[in-house]
């Protein structure tokens, strides 16, 4: 049991925090409880320590928190939620699950639910899987190698465009990766956290990578985004690469920021033999206004 004579975070007094725990032969549990008029928190941790594979189970019952009083937000926001997380393994091989349910934020006398978060990760020598399902973001990432090997494979792929040498580590398996991500705009995002966000429609990202065939493709689409008076319509980014060159095109229908309004723009580029070539075009009412090549 631990009691604190002085404990603070962000100038907020947390000395009322109570911590109880016990452990025997690598197995144990810990309870962390705090309650005052701004924060009501109950946390429990179960664990089993092992040199090969440890296990941790965490439950957090945030019964109520005044985020403004705690110095976390300037807006007057109160929140509550329940979180459950489980971890099994070690830093190189593990399974992780995290869920948030019964989440509610109260702002300006209006309640905004934010529960329904489900996150999972599976990391192995030959596997990287990450999945997130929530009201704000959906993400699926799959690879046949570990995160460290995947990072090195992507780095070597891009280095091929900047060097005469094609890098390939014959001792490592050829990496593959697929990413599918979508961003959403639930009411809590605009009304509570990003009050300048007027509109955000259909943000989607897809990535496909195959090291053995030197193929890389990526596609990003943003149909419409408005933050305060700044507007972006129909942004797209397409990227496609092989062992010789990397081609890309990026453009939008309209970009407006402050007094500046930029009509339709299309930028096409190619990176080959350590040389970057760009074609820049602007349009107005379907007619090309300018073309710049470099």
Strands, total number: 23
Percentage of residues in strands:
over 45%
Task: Please give the oligomerization state of what you see.
Answer: single chain
Strand count, sense and closure of the main sheet?
A: 21 strands, antiparallel
Can you write the helix and strand succession as a string?
EEEEEEEEEEEEEHEHEEEEEEEEE
Morphology:
flat
Give the mean pLDDT. 91
Residue share in helix: under 10%
Question: Distance between the terminal alpha carbons, to the nearest Å?
Answer: 69 Å
By helix and strand content, what is the structural category? mainly beta
* Poorly predicted spans: none
Return Rg in Å.
25 Å
Number of helices: 2
Describe the model.
- This protein is mainly beta and 294 residues long.
- The protein contains 2 helices and 23 strands.
- The chain has a 21-stranded antiparallel beta sheet that branches. Strands 2-3 form a two-stranded antiparallel sheet.
- A hairpin with a 4-residue loop joins strand 8 and strand 9.
Provide tags for this entry.
two-stranded antiparallel sheet; flat; 294 residues; 7% helix; 21-stranded antiparallel sheet
Protein topology:
Elements: E1 2-3, E2 8-9, E3 12-13, E4 18-24, E5 27-35, E6 39-48, E7 54-66, E8 77-89, E9 94-107, E10 110-113, E11 117-124, E12 127-133, E13 137-143, H1 147-160, E14 176-183, H2 187-193, E15 197-210, E16 215-227, E17 230-241, E18 245-252, E19 254-257, E20 260-262, E21 265-272, E22 275-284, E23 287-293
Antiparallel strand pairs: 1-4, 2-3, 4-5, 5-6, 6-7, 7-8, 8-9, 9-10, 9-11, 11-12, 12-13, 13-14, 14-15, 15-16, 16-17, 17-18, 17-19, 18-21, 19-20, 21-22, 22-23
């Amino acid at each position: 049991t631990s009691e604190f004579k002085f404990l603070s975070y962000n100038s907020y007094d947390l000395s009322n925090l109570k911590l109880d725990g016990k452990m025997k032969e690598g197995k144990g549990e810990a309870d962390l409880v705090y309650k005052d008029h701004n924060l009501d928190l109950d946390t429990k941790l179960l664990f089993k320590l092992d040199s090969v594979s440890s296990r941790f189970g965490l439950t957090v019952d945030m019964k109520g928190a005044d985020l403004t009083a705690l110095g976390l937000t300037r807006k007057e926001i109160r929140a509550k939620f329940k979180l459950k997380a489980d971890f099994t393994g070690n830093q190189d091989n593990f399974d992780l699950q995290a869920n948030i349910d019964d989440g509610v934020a109260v702002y300006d006398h209006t309640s905004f639910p934010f529960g329904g978060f489900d996150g999972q990760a599976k990391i192995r020598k030959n596997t990287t899987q990450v999945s997130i399902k929530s009201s704000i973001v959906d993400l699926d990432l799959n690879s046949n190698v570990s995160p460290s090997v995947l990072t090195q494979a992507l780095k070597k792929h891009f280095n091929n465009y900047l060097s005469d040498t094609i890098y390939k580590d014959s001792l490592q398996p050829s990496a593959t990766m697929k990413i599918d991500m979508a961003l959403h705009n639930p009411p809590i995002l605009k009304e509570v956290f990003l009050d300048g966000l007027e509109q955000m429609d259909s943000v989607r990202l897809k990535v496909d990578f195959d090291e053995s065939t030197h193929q890389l493709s990526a596609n990003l689409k943003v149909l419409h985004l408005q933050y305060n008076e700044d507007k972006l319509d129909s942004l797209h980014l397409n990227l496609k690469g092989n062992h010789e060159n990397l081609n890309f095109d990026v453009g939008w229908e309209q970009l407006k920021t402050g007094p500046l309004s930029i009509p339709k723009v299309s930028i096409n580029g190619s990176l080959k033999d350590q040389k970057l070539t760009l074609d820049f075009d602007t349009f107005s009412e379907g007619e090309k206004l300018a073309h710049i090549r470099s």
